[in-house]
Amino acid sequence: MRTKLAVIAICAACSLAVAPRALEAQQPGPGSAPPEMQKGSQAAGVANPQSRTPSPEPQAPSPTLTLADLERMALARNPTLAEAQADVRASQGRKLQSGLYPNPTIGYEGREINTGPVYRGGEHGFFVQQPIVTGGKLSLSRRVFATEAEQAQSEAAAQRQRVLNSVRIAYYRALGAQETVQLTANLADLARSAATTSAELANVGQADQPDVLEARVEAGRARLDLLAAQSNQESVWQELAATVGDPALPMTALAGKLDDPLPVIDQDQALAAILSRSPEVQTAEQGVTRAEEALKRARAEKLPDVELRGGLDYNRELLGLMNAPVGWEGEAEVGVQIPLFNRNQGNVSTADAELTHARDDLERVKLGLRANFAAAFHEYAESAEVVRAYRDQILPDAEQAYGLYLARYKEMAAAYPQVLIAQRTWFELREEYTGSLVTEWESAVAIQGYLLTDGLAAPLAPGEPATLWPGVEVKP
């Protein structure tokens, strides 16, 4: 009888001893199971509890998806990229239209139309009328809308970066959720196995009822943690699927590890790169240039254009004693509009105000980027420090404490709840470590991607009505 009780006690200890190794196989992190735990499992000859108790975790389909796969899907399917390209084409169309010369007017004209014997039907003919644009207004219009086309290109580049950043952030969140589910599933298996073993020990008088209840409570908590982790993984996956433009994308195992080497970011260099190369800064700078060209265009509007008109008429009126029709007659007109009352002064004032607005907006964009960078870099630096602390000290200490409690329990020198508490602490620290890794990746992606996020936000469509001719506009 004593031998049987000893075997049961050893089995209970060994079911716990398998925990660190099973979790290590699924979840990245520093260190491995303590040697004393591995030795205890080998001595007892106990198989992994997962081989006896089926895991509730659904099997991930194969093959796995990589970050590069998801980026290709997003670039091909995310609708905001097609919107941005449509805005580019629209701005190019406005650029083309704004520089086209006004069309001539050709028409019929008749005068002195009378059926009497002298006029004999009057004069009938045609005319051609052509406005001549002066002051380089067409060239100025082309320059305004050429700058707008550049703005649209910059916004398309910004939207592409937003999509890639959003995919990368969603990928690391999904990867963290995936690893948390794996970790939680293993812990649930081990807790369920430990509860069963505790019940067996209680049946033979080798465990107290509080120990059994504590084991059952731990198994119930682990099951609820698994359900919460799976629900979170589903939510994160739906976000990722929407970002890549395929909401029906089935949940698939993701390749990669959160603890792969993270980029090392220098604060001053990163800020300088954002302020000089960010598409948002480029768009704002192009907005200033566009406003300057628009002001020149508004000032040039007061220069009058020349109206040319010419034509031929056939005069059927009889000419004096010869009793013959007058015949063909030519006409020519040249006119200009005198800018006496309307010198486009209202539009000049508006364009000047818009130039001031554009310059202030450039400063606003830079200040906003500085503020956003400060928050993002603080989060990056803080999470990097947390990750180092967990990896270098906290997790190894927690793992060692768990191993020591387990060894003492095998020697009947520690109570079973102490082992459960150490195991739970170790798991919670691993979960916090995973969350810190995800946060560090999110911050690093945002900083290296010029702080552009939200890949499903509608891209900005630059452009105002294109002035082709006074009173005639092409609207965006």
Write up what this structure looks like.
The protein is an alpha+beta fold and 476 residues long. It has a single domain, classed as Outer membrane efflux proteins (OEP), CATH 1.20.1600. Helices cover 63% and strands 11% of the residues. It has 10 helices and 6 strands. The strands form 2 sheets. It has a 4-stranded antiparallel sheet, with no helix packed on it. Helix 5 runs antiparallel to helix 6. It is elongated and about 145 Å long. The termini are far apart. The N terminus and C terminus are likely disordered.
Keywords:
single chain, 476 residues, alpha+beta, Outer membrane efflux proteins (OEP), 4-stranded antiparallel β-sheet, two-stranded antiparallel sheet, disordered C terminus
What's the structural blueprint in terms of helices and strands?
Layout: H1 2-26, H2 35-44, H3 67-77, H4 79-98, E1 105-111, E2 123-132, H5 137-203, H6 209-243, H7 267-277, H8 279-300, E3 306-319, E4 324-336, H9 345-410, H10 416-448, E5 466-469, E6 472-474
Antiparallel strand pairs: 1-2, 2-3, 3-4, 5-6
Helix pairs in contact: 1-2, 1-5, 1-9, 3-5, 4-5, 5-6, 5-8, 5-10, 6-10, 7-8, 7-9, 8-9, 9-10
CATH class call = Mainly Alpha
Structural class: alpha+beta
Termini separation: 90 Å
Major sheet = 4 strands, antiparallel
Contiguous uncertain segments of 5+ residues: 1-55, 464-476
Shape: elongated
Please give the radius of gyration in angstroms: 39 Å
Summarize the structure.
The chain has 476 residues and is an alpha+beta fold.
